[in-house]
Amino acid sequence: MGVTEPAVEERGNREEETEEKQRRVKPVEKEEEESKDKEHHRFLTSLNRLNPTNPLRIIVNNGGGARFTTPPLHSSSRVPPPTQTPPTRTQPPAEPHPPPSPSPSTPPPQPQHQTRSLFTPTPQQTLASLNSTKYTNKFFLFLFILHKVVAIAFVCFLVFRGVKGLIGSNGSVKRKEQRILKFLLPQVEAASLLSIVLAFSWQMAFRLWPDFMIHFILWSTFLMSLSSGILLLCFQMPATDAVGVCLIAFSIGNGLYACWVTRRIKFCSKILVKSLEPVSKFSDLNLPTYYMLAAGFLWMSLWIFGVIGALNFPFPSLVIIALVLSLAWTTEVMRNVVNLTVSRVIALFYLRGMQSSTRFSFQRSLSRNLGSACLGSLFVPTIEALRILARGLNLLKGEDEFMFCCANCCLNLMTFIFEHGNSWAFVQIAAYGKGFVRASQDTWKLFEDADMVEIVDADITSSICFLTGICSGCVCVIMAAAWTHTVYKPFTATISLLAFFIGYLMTRISMALPHACVSCYYACYAENSENRFFDKTIRDRQALIKNGRVVVPTTPRVRRAVA
């Protein structure tokens, strides 16, 4: 007993010493943990003040933020790590201290919530969806499909009547159709092939020498239209004389226009060169143009046989006019399909830095956005033509009160219509999947907010594309008219008109690519002018216009009433 008592007493002393050491270490560990918590909370608070567009914040919010939690401010809410206590002695639980009562001058502390995200959501503008799944302008999509079904059925019926008249009859109908096949069909098919070659040539030339081609097209169209008009006048037939006079009148207007836009050429050349730079990054961007030109050639070949069959149909003139309007709408839709495809690829490159799939964009243009292409193809050419007419009337109004009222009324009306339907809308249709009218309004609003209305209003890219089609049509007229006058003179005027129409339409399809690139450059700049893909060309132009050092020679616009 005497030996065991000192041993028990010694063990008790050691336990007291261990307990005393733990008491000394515990406040130190608690202070270290509190300091770490404060430093961690200060770090997270500094991250929370980052800009929402900061890459670090975007990465943590989207992917990495789930691994972290916002620590509580009060260390009393943390559960201390368990410590071993001697079995012999237990410490009485410390009574919790009541929280300090808030003074009336200090606001109560905000409660801290444990969240899975590193940052609390901040209100910011959400980006528009780039993959809209809805079909746009469904009514006009249905109308175009119905029109194509009827047109294909009617053309096949006319071809059947033509073949039946060629094989089944033995009289004048058979001789007439044989004469048409011999003296009309070869020239028209040759004009189709020539227009495809010209279409490829023009597009390649614009991509290689954009600055030179603007000057070349302005004056080559003047020369080609003048030459074709003089050629038709030399045939000395009433029909060819009428066509020749129209071409000569157009060449005079073209020459005056070329002189009038001389001061705009330098700036438009810069924009065209700059807008065509992204095309080299997409090796397959020309494929939609090739597909549409191939489809256009096949449809025109069948369409020509339908025209031949219509000559033996009651009221052939009305039937041929209907066929011409159907062909014009169809080829315009083909052109705008290419426009939408290129616009989506280039717009996503500008707005998001993405290299979008051309094939996917082409499929989207043929499906979800086809209704907008049909609506735009039906109304945009008419709207732009009437707007030009209204502006011309506004220039010629003079001081006559009646003409002044009529001109202002027409210009007001056409300006309103143009703001609700214009060719700039195809960029937002392709990028965001909007309807045609809404896209037109939004795009024009962007131009107004960015103070770009005068710049886009003075752009001559659409005029250059139009004149390129006219130039191809005149070249086809010279070839077909000379050939037809040699083999069969009565068909000269008819074949000249068909050749001009085919050459113009096929070239317009190929020129959709540069037109779409320029439209994307303007529209995307208006949406985000600080993008790194844009230089100071437009900004410098705006500064020169504001300072009065550059006067944009546009036709008068309607002044908006200021409240």
UniProtKB/TrEMBL annotation:
Residues 79-111 have a biased composition (Pro residues). It is found in: Cell membrane; Membrane. GO terms for cellular component: plasma membrane. Signal peptide: none annotated. It comes from the Eukaryota. Residues 45-54 have a biased composition (Polar residues). Keywords: Membrane, Transmembrane, Transmembrane helix. InterPro entries: Choline_transptr-like (IPR007603). The chain crosses the membrane at residues 139-160, 180-200, 212-235, 242-263, 464-484, 490-507. Belongs to the CTL (choline transporter-like) family. This is Choline transporter-like protein. It comes from Eruca vesicaria subsp. sativa (Garden rocket).
